[in-house]
Write a structure and sequence with these properties.
Length: about 140
């Protein structure tokens, strides 16, 4: 009986903390890593969720698609574990918007994001108020 109470308490506490932490996350960050996965170097990588707010504190670039993107589009991490410039997931958030007349297509790496920007297919906007901390796992 005591064990069951402990399990219920622990589960309730975990749910409560998740709701509190997710609720405290900046609005733009809600879709950032909330699914627990991002694209990194063309592959899907897991994240530790929920992301913790870090306004104006990001250094690792991450590209988010608040207006949507192609089917299956996830946020794109610019760096990750094993990269020399990875700072543990202190994400500097850039929003991605497809240009008028461009049909959204899947972007799975920061290289593809930069090629799309150079082609005029997307516009990147730095949104430092939405910076978060959330490590990526390979």
């Amino acid at each position: 009986m005591i064990c069951m109470k402990k399990i219920l308490f622990t589960g309730t506490l975990a749910l409560f903390l998740t709701v509190i932490l997710v609720g405290a996350t900046p609005a733009g960050a809600q879709g950032l890593l909330g699914r627990g996965t991002v694209f990194f170097d063309g592959a899907v990588a897991r994240t530790l969720v929920p992301p913790a707010p870090l306004p104006h504190g990001g250094v690792d670039p991450i590209y988010v698609f608040p207006g949507g993107g192609a089917d299956g589009q996830l946020s794109v991490a610019g760096v990750g574990p094993g990269d020399r410039d990875y700072h543990g997931g202190r994400w500097a958030v850039y929003t991605v918007a497809f240009s008028d007349g461009v049909t959204p297509y899947l972007l799975t790496s920061d290289e593809e994001v930069h090629v799309a920007e150079a082609a005029g297919d997307i516009v990147l906007t730095r949104t430092p108020e939405n910076d978060v901390r959330c490590p990526v796992l390979r």
